[in-house]
Amino acid sequence: MTPELPEEAIELAEAAGRAFDALGGVEVARRAEADPDLRAREVLPVLEQLGVGDLDPRGSGLALAAAAALCEAAGRVVLPYPLAAVLVDDGEGRPTAAIPARSARVDHATVVPSWRVGRLPTGTGTGTGTGGVGTPDAGALGSRLGPFVGDLTLDVGGGAPPLRDLLVQQALVAWTVLGSLGRAVELATEHVLGRIQFGRPLAEFQAVQFHLADAAVAVAGLRELAGFTLWRLERGGDDAIVDVLALRSHLLEVARSVLRSTQQLHGAAGVCDEYDVSVIVRSVQPALRLPAGVDATVDLLVGSVEAFGFVGLFPHGADLRDGGPDRSATW
Amino acid sequence: MDFDLGQDAAALRVRLRRLIDQELPDGFLGAFTDDPADLAVTQAFCRLLAEQGLLTVAWPSEFGGGGGSLWDQTVVREEMWAHHEPRGAQYMGLNWVGPAIMAHGTPEQQARHLPPIAAGEVIWCQGFSEPEAGSDLASLRTRAVPVGDTSGADGWRITGQKIWTSYAGMAQWCIIAARVGPGERHEGITMFLVPADAPGIEVRPIRSMLGPHHLNEVFLDDVFAGPEAVLGELGGGWAVIRTALAHERVGIARYARCERLLSELGRELEPHWGDLPASLHAAWVRALVQVRVARLLAYRTVRAQESGGVPDVAASAARIAVTQCDQSVAEVLCSALEERCLDAGSTAPVHGAVEDHWRYAQASTVSSGTIEIQRSIVAKALLRGERL
Ligand SMILES: Cc1cc2nc3c(=O)[nH]c(=O)nc-3n(C[C@H](O)[C@H](O)[C@H](O)COP(=O)(O)OP(=O)(O)OC[C@H]3O[C@@H](n4cnc5c(N)ncnc54)[C@H](O)[C@@H]3O)c2cc1C
Predict the structure, then answer these.
(1) The CATH classification of domain A164-316, taken from the options 1.10.10.10, 3.40.718.10, 1.20.140.10, 3.30.450.20
(2) Cα dihedral B105, B106, B107, B111 in deg (nearest 10)
(3) Quick one: pLDDT at residue A317?
(4) Does B210 touch chain A (CB under 8 A)?
(5) Is the CB of A265 under 6 A from ligand 1?
(6) Which residue, of A98, A155, B24, B363, is most buried by count of CB atoms within 10 Å of its CB?
(7) Residue B118, domain member (yes or no)
(8) Where does residue B199 rank: exposed (0-12), middle (13-18), buried (19+ CB within 10 A)?
(9) Quick one: pLDDT at residue B100?
């Protein structure tokens, strides 16, 4: 068993981390809110230099791992660009993204002229849901929780993307958020080591240590699950949808508690945009709400477990299906 | 047992809701939005409440109030917060600055400050926290030095820095905690009532996810305060802070807004309720239960207040439940609205109240003392042998 990312992927992530830091780190997200064109002007060239255009996460296990590591690095600085979607190019230069059940909404909609979008299938559907080519409507929400989020006008004639593309994109979104959560824990750690109250660093208070430990354990668990999901995706069965939805549903739970506690450990500074943690909390909201929030994701997961079972040491969900091979006890 | 707040309270609630319905624009989200017109709405609304005797319905009659019960006060608080606090920043004056001046002020201070607070004409801000004194408020360093002899009879010069001061940019008055004399920690802390435009005061806004006008830094450079500015005893500021914080902690009926938003959400989602995930139905009803529990704990504080004394432990207990409820309701609301929870402003679902609520809720376990500090207040009381 090798649960670690391959060396090449780690190297790419390190190079990306340096490039994103050189751009200004989290400051780029702050600046992009005032100057959205900065995404095309400053962020895109850096991604091109990193070779994003040549990296196809569907091509091999190594490419998938490299894409994941790259997304994690982008997440650490909440890079204002739809990297996961761009990595899953439709072959005609359109990024691929999963969209919500009742809208065609994506983050950073206007940063490209055209998208390939689709809906994750519910329940026993094995094909994709609806989808097509999406053209961004003018403007973005501009809200504090979704500054770059925008709606697409959908042309279903073009056909939905393959399910696998949507699954890869969703796994990469999870890796991106994973990077943000990992960074939030680091920021909270630095903050409580440096901040003195009651005559000593906050880090010396056990209540503070417990918060930190819980957050770090949650992120470590999420990272393992994110790696496991890549492995399952690489193996390429129909049931990978179960694993991707399981990852997303866990991601949403972990994100909520980790962001909450790392923000809390900053005190009032945690809601203040001068501090990176506040910008991180706001910037990841679109990824947590699109294409499905926690309840809708769990609902999709229930449907897919009923359809395919759930891989583990024992069979799960096999009786819930009508017929079909029992894929739930693969090891 | 009886959990009915009584006929008067019910009538008051009906009256307030009618006024709110008539006077506030549709989709009002409070004074602190990006739209400056909202601030004007709160000023007009305060005047109207004052004219109708509703602004200080529960202040004692000797201070120009309606002499109503603590339950009347509770109803006002609930209705105001549920409807996005149409009294604007003035609520701070009404909820606790006024009561602190009633409890600790001289007759002159009372005569000078209470009438404008009661008329909703003045905005106060609270200068307690400092960059190095957050949870550890007793370590504050802002210093007041007597002018002339040490008695302070000729006034004081205040120098220091405050941070996270809500509404400082729009306030006319500031209640400042500063240190007098050589004492350490709680000793020597003294409260000063200072006009916000006094020479030497500089206010800088802080950008936060709560939106404009909210948090500020306040720099105090040799600010003069006359002898009449001292509230309470010299060095007796900690007692004022305790009363103020206890009032503040119960003063905001966050559970009432949570409950109203859950109700509005139900209405918003009603057309496709059946299509929603079962887990969301469950989350919605569980949130309703959580809100009820938070409200009942807040009522315990009111009962403790009725029997006299500073209900600080009860207030901390209620505050823990209420702020947790605030945050978990924020998640339920967002999850239910799915991707539309990212929309802000009047065209957003539930007139943008869900997005607004989510952002504010993130700070609720920090403002007025963090939830960790409330927990330790409760725990220490239990360990002293007190019962909740
Ligand atoms: C929206 C908002 C409005 C505010 N308005 C005002 C205002 O008008 N006037 C004013 O004076 N102040 C105001 N404040 C400041 C508020 O009172 C402080 O933020 C609060 O007391 C916490 O201080 P801090 O932010 O410095 O956090 P810190 O004290 O630095 O705390 C950081 C983290 O460490 C934890 N921690 C600290 N000590 C301990 C301990 N002993 N054990 C365990 N954990 C601990 C805290 O719980 C927190 O999670 C406001 C704050 C907010 C968020």
Answers:
(1) 1.20.140.10
(2) -50
(3) 81
(4) yes
(5) yes
(6) A98
(7) no
(8) exposed
(9) 92
Total domain count for chain B? 3
What average pLDDT does range B57-74 have in this prediction?
88
Return the pLDDT at B387.
87
Length in residues, chain B: 388
- Which atom number of ligand 1 is nearest to the Cα of residue A266? 32
| Least confident piece of the model among A178-192, A226-240, A262-276, B132-146 | A226-240
Q: Which of B71, B86, B101 is the last residue of a domain?
A: B86
CB contact under 8 A, A268 and B215: yes
The b/e string for B285-296 (b: 16+ C-beta within 10 A; e otherwise) is eebbebbeebbe
Query: Are B257 and B358 in a shared domain?
Result: yes
pTM: 0.95
The residue type found at B343 is D
Structural domain boundaries enclosing B284:
252-383
What's the confidence (pLDDT) of residue A328? 46
Q: How many CB atoms lie within 10 A of CB A44?
A: 16
> Which of A149, A272, A301, A302 is the mutation pick for testing B, counting most B CBs within 10 A?
A272
Same domain, B256 and B372: yes
Q: From the CB of B211, is ligand 1 less than 6 Å away?
A: no
Q: Chain B residues with CB inside 8 Å of A293's CB?
A: 334-335, 338-339, 341
Say what the pLDDT of residue B371 is.
97
Does any domain span residue B195?
Answer: yes
- B363 Cβ inside 6 Å of ligand 1: yes
Q: What is the pLDDT of residue B275?
A: 86
Q: CA separation (Å) from B76 to A137, B97, B162, B250, B304? A: 44, 17, 30, 13, 18
How confident is the model at residue B332, as a pLDDT? Answer: 96
Nearest-CB residue to A292 (from B338, B348, B363): B338
| Six-digit token string for B20 | 């709110």
Chain B residues within 8 A of A261 when measuring between CB atoms: none
Is residue B106, in this structure, part of any structural domain at all? no
Active site residue B78: no
**Which of A45-54, A109-118, B182-191 is predicted least confidently?**
B182-191
Output the domain CATH number for residue B150.
Answer: 2.40.110.10
pLDDT band, very low/low/confident/very high, at B308 (cuts 50, 70, 90): confident
What is the tens place of the pLDDT at every residue in B114-131?
999 998 899 999 999 999
**What Rg, from alpha-carbon coordinates, does chain B have?**
21
